[in-house]
């Protein structure tokens, strides 16, 4: 479970920031860095917009290349020319990112640098292995980094983070659930091998487990089916269990999403109030006791120089009011 908990920290720590990569001293390299990495300038935003458009168009070229009716004759030549045009453009962009930082290896070994490299490798591998060009669909991962450029898609990042927190919070429950399903599938697959036997298609225990997985997930390919009455009974039980098995993970993740402050519609005090006993910091605005352990919540400390809010029905005491009372 620590692996799931480390994912958010991994993406946060490996983000290509100025502190990690180092802003170059040379003026032309600094200007190049602001263009290809930063998005708070007009040049940077325009660069990211055109880059996003190029990624989407290149994905369209890869998809069109896989359709036999389109990739024929002169259209095949045009698609290959476009694919190499996008590949060379992405190669130049990758080289500019390496040149524009003082620590290029940190960018090359970061998650985003590896994704950028994988986006251009398939085209060069296609020289020796033609089918490798379809692996260029990994460029779709680069679109996640450009969501914040477009105002319409800017809120999608918050939704991604909310879904990630829900998956992280429910990872332990889902793991326990999947382990129970794995044991059930293993036992049922072995029983079907013993009951049906090789004459009905269950040639081995792995074949029985394969049938159990396709049955419990309600896929049912039909390539292997039980023929005996007892085998059909177990198959019916597995089919009925499949409905509940599919619903359980959805309910677990849905419950975690519903518990999040953004989904519940209440503004939680993520930074204001924290329980002194258990450390829980998700409390509603009118909460007086901790939602986890029941300890009374202490009010948040006001910043220096700022007066504490007065109770309802009482005016705040000031120096002017005090001097008036003395007169």
Topology overview:
Blueprint (H helix, E strand, L loop, with lengths): L1 H12 L4 H4 L5 H10 L5 H24 L8 H26 L4 H5 L2 H8 L2 H5 L30 H14 L1 H26 L8 H12 L12 H31 L1 H4 L54 H8 L1
Helix pairs in contact: 3-5, 4-5, 9-12, 10-11, 10-12
Task: Describe the protein in words.
By secondary structure, the protein is an all-alpha fold. It has 14 helices and no strands. The radius of gyration is 29 Å and the shape is flat. Mean pLDDT is 76; it is low at 264-271 and 302-327.
**What is the straight-line distance between the termini?**
68 Å
Overall helicity: 55-70%
Provide mean pLDDT, rounded: 76
The outline comes out as: flat
Rg, Å, rounded: 29 Å
Strand percentage lies at under 5%
Q: How would you characterize the largest beta sheet?
A: none
Order of helices and strands: HHHHHHHHHHHHHH
Spans where pLDDT lies below 50 across 5 or more residues: 264-271, 302-327
SS summary, helix count: 14
How many DSSP-defined strands?
0
Quaternary organization: single chain
- Secondary-structure-based class equals mainly alpha
Q: What descriptors fit this protein?
A:
disordered C terminus, mainly alpha
Structure, briefly:
With 327 residues, the protein is mostly helical.
């Amino acid at each position: 479970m620590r692996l799931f908990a480390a994912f958010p920290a991994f993406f946060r720590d490996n983000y290509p920031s100025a502190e990690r990569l180092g802003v170059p001293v040379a003026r032309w390299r600094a200007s190049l860095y602001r263009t290809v990495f930063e998005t708070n300038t007009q040049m940077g935003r325009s660069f990211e917009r055109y880059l996003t458009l190029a990624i989407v168009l290149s994905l369209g070229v890869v998809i069109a290349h896989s359709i036999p009716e389109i990739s024929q004759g002169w259209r095949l030549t045009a698609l290959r020319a476009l694919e190499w045009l996008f590949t060379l453009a992405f190669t130049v962009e990758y080289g500019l990112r390496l040149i524009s930082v003082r620590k290029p290896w940190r960018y090359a070994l970061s998650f985003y640098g590896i994704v950028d490299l994988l986006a251009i490798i398939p085209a060069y591998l296609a020289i020796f292995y033609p089918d490798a060009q379809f692996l260029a669909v990994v460029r779709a991962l680069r679109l996640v980094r450009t969501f914040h450029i477009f105002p319409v898609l800017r809120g999608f990042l918050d939704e991604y983070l909310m879904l990630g927190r829900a998956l992280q919070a429910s990872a332990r429950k889902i793991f326990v659930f999947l382990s129970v399903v794995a044991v059930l599938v293993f036992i049922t697959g072995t029983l079907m091998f013993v009951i049906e036997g090789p004459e009905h298609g269950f040639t081995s225990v792995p074949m029985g487990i394969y049938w159990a997985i396709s049955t419990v997930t309600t896929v049912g390919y039909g390539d292997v089916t039980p023929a005996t009455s007892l085998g059909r009974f177990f198959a019916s039980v597995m089919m009925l269990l499949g409905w509940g098995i599919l619903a359980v993970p959805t309910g677990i993740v849905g419950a975690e999403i519903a518990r999040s402050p953004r989904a519940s519609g209440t503004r939680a005090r993520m930074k204001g109030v924290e329980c002194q006993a258990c450390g829980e910091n998700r409390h509603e605005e009118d909460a007086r006791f901790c939602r986890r352990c029941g300890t009374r919540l202490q009010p948040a400390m006001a910043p220096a120089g700022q007066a504490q809010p007065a109770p309802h029905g009482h005016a705040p005491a000031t120096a002017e009011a005090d001097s008036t009372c003395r007169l």
